[in-house]
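Entry:
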Amino acid sequence: MGCEPADQSAPKKLTSPSIRLYHVSSWIYFTADTTLRTESGMKSQPILWLLSAIAVILHYFAPGTIRGDDSAAVLDIGLRRELFVDGTLITKFAGKAELRLHHPVPREVVLDCDRPWEGNSVNYNTVFQDGDRYRMYYRGSHGNYVPYVPDNRPNHPDVYCYAESSDGIRWTRPNLGLVEFNGSKENNIILKGEGAHAFSPFKD
């Protein structure tokens, strides 16, 4: 995947770590031999230090960045609830106020993903309340890239599934009859294929 130099007759061993800048269609990354390489293996001029400096400047001085020590920038969040996971919205603490992040506590299993179309990798979950009902959307896929769940089932493309609940604890999979999987539409799939990889529904 682009880890070889352009000159295949004289390969160079890449040392780690590499600094990776992600592009839409390919990787651009800096290696220890001070040569800028791309995923296709093409080589450019050794401009590592210049590009590294530009990356640092853009990171710390990008316009529109809000920092806790910027006293001139006051962000009005109104009555909106905020999840404080860092100091982005906090200038300073006064009195006994402190930022304390609690550790997650394992609870009951919400959904046992054992359907054939859910595969061995279920993620990208979205849950929101819609009236008197909670709706859950999640991605199912099956591939050999999940080594800790080995089995002999064939790989299949991503699918996006739907489940619902009246209390957020007990969930059911309605038989939607929308998308065919292995010759049957008796499932809770709403989307299949490339568009289902990172599908993120929301209520407007």
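DSSP finds one helix and seven strands in the chain.
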